[in-house]
Amino acid sequence: MKIRVRLIIYFALLIIAVYLMVVIFNLQKRSTNAPTRDYQEIINSGNLNVVTDYNSFGYFVSGDTIDGFQYEMIKRLENDWGIKVNIFLENRLDDNLYGLNKGVYDIVARNIPINSELKENFGFTQVIVRNKQVLVQRKPEYNDSIPPIRQHLDLAKKQITVSENSPAILRLQNLSNEIGDTIFVKQNPTYGEEQLVMMVASGDIDYTVCSEIVARNLAKEFPEIDIDTDISFTQLESWAVRKESPTLLDSLNNWLSKLVNSEEFNKKLKEFE
Q1: Helix (H, G, I), strand (E, B) or coil at 141
Q2: 3 state SS of 109
């Protein structure tokens, strides 16, 4: 019941977030001669548009309180820069990056695994966290005594559900080549990684792939899940900006270089890991 309620709440928030994204996109389309939004244009406008993902690490609502590691970082940025930050929620990374390119957002503030393809098209800040992808499955006592998968070879012919266009897809394709057998990857167009983990816990699906940080958070709440099988090596993860916003990127890096080495940052990160 708890999982079902959380999925319903997520879906309602998703509809609201998509509506707001469409409104802002249409407003920006009306100003076809608007200059590129780099740091100075953003400061002059008095508004910074930031998108993050809705999950137990990024941004979440608990009762009447908003919390999350990314949320705390964004609010700290708002305070340090003295600018109003408009926060948007969108779980699909490809939609985040599309909105970034279209000028809907100025920053994608979520844990983005850096790879060569993305670096060609976007500007990435210095490393914020180190993370990896893990297989999420049920523990034997919640799965008819079936032991969890521990060897990658045992993923052959298994179906793994991930969110549509998830960064995990490329890793699973490479893993399929490495083991010399097929791993069936099913893309879910509606839910993000956290919601798919809930579906594993409830028995609606058998496997998904999730970032270790989010998986560790969810394992505290859902004892049904096993997260002890790594799918990837350690990944470097950062925020993203447009290539056409180099001054914004430099300003973010200057801000982050002081923040990520602070005791406050590391204490806050441990709270959400």
Answers
A1: helix
A2: strand
Tokens of 30: 């009306």
Q: Which residue type is seen at 231?
A: I
Nearest CA-CA partner of 95 in 155, 22, 151 = 22
> Alpha-carbon distance 54 to 134, whole Å?
19
Separation CA 87–CA 96 (nearest Å)? 12
Contacts of 51 (CB under 8 A, 6+ apart): 87, 88, 89, 90, 96, 99, 100, 104, 105, 107, 108, 109, 110
Q: What radius of gyration, in Å, describes the C-alpha atoms of the chain?
A: 19
Residues 6+ apart with CB under 8 A from 156: 179, 181, 182, 183
Token pair, residue 265, equals: 């940052």
Q: Which residue carries 């995990």 as its tokens?
A: 168
Q: Which two tokens stand for residue 2?
A: 């708890």
| CA distance to 15, 98, 125, per residue, from 261 (Å) | 37, 31, 15
How many whole angstroms separate alpha carbon 45 and alpha carbon 51?
18
Sequence-distant (6+) residues with CB within 8 A of 60 are 54, 66, 67, 68, 71
pLDDT mean values, one per 10 residues, the chain (273 residues): 61 58 50 68 96 91 91 96 96 93 96 90 96 97 97 98 92 96 96 94 97 93 97 95 97 96 88 79
